[in-house]
Recover the amino acids of this structure.
């Protein structure tokens, strides 16, 4: 499909400034409110080409479907013309819910967008819920950097995060496919995924099943990963998940363990000696 070319690179700074604005989403909403929505045949609408590989969690689709079924005030989706079709810009959940409900038409506002302008629009709309949309933002940031020359600093202004956070977001895309799927489903959080990005795939595949089975907090996962630098995997889990002490923190290179009683402390130390950890 033929796509509208990017805006001239001389306008890059102007685009960044526009989408970095704190009120850009509200401004766009006011502009869309002045447009009369059209009832577009669902057969003419296609998923966003950049994000279609990211499956929307079933629970979110159910919520969107419920809003449609109960005739709540559902905002129209935003689409852009692509050849003889219309591509989703905003409203992927509503679009997929409409597909599942087999609706013949959907309320939509048609708006032309250049390719990078479209991606910036989506990032600006997702940035308030970054943790639950981390992979979508990461995917778009990577494309803007590689295909359109946007720097991480410019992207950080648009996403309202630090430059290192943009770098970490894009590193999520290097996680194993199954882990990315679990992040999209909400089985693991953005914090969990962020803790895993420095590990080799073999270590990630070893950790994640236990993480899911035992429902570790982000703090527990981070501590286990740090302890694995000097301990066996099971030993690290035993130290962090042992219920005989009430708290464990890592301060630089020091592990601080708090116990509920002196007896619990002595028992724990004896076990470490027995296992030759100390």
């Amino acid at each position: 499909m033929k796509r509208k070319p990017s805006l001239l690179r001389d306008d890059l700074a102007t685009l960044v400034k526009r989408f970095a604005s704190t009120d850009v989403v509200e401004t766009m909403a006011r502009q869309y409110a002045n447009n009369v929505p059209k009832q577009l045949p669902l057969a003419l609408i296609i998923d966003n080409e950049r994000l279609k590989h990211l499956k929307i969690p079933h629970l979110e689709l159910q919520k969107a479907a419920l809003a449609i079924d109960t005739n709540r005030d559902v905002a129209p989706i935003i689409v852009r013309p692509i050849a003889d079709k219309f591509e989703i810009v905003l409203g992927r959940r509503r679009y997929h819910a409409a597909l599942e409900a087999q609706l013949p038409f959907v309320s939509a506002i048609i708006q032309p967008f250049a390719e990078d302008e479209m991606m910036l629009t989506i990032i600006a709309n997702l940035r308030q819920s970054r943790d639950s949309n981390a992979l979508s933002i990461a995917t778009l940031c990577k494309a803007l950097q590689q295909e359109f020359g946007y720097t991480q600093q410019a992207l950080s202004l648009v996403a309202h995060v630090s430059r290192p956070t943009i770098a970490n977001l894009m590193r999520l895309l290097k996680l194993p496919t199954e882990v990315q799927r679990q992040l999209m489903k909400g089985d693991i959080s953005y914090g969990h995924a962020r803790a895993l990005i420095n590990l080799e795939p073999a270590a990630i595949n070893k950790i994640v099943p236990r993480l899911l089975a035992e429902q570790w907090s982000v703090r527990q996962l981070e501590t286990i990963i740090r302890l694995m630098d000097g301990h066996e995997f099971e030993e690290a889990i035993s130290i962090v998940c042992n219920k005989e002490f009430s708290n464990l923190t890592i301060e630089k290179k020091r592990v601080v363990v708090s116990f509920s009683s002196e007896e619990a402390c002595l028992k724990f130390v004896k076990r470490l000696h027995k296992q030759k950890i100390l």
Q: What stands out?
A: The chain has two domains: 9-172, 175-274. DSSP finds 14 helices and seven strands in the chain. The beta strands are 38-41, 45-46, 77-82, 85-90, 105-110, 245-251, 254-259. The longest helix spans residues 134-148.
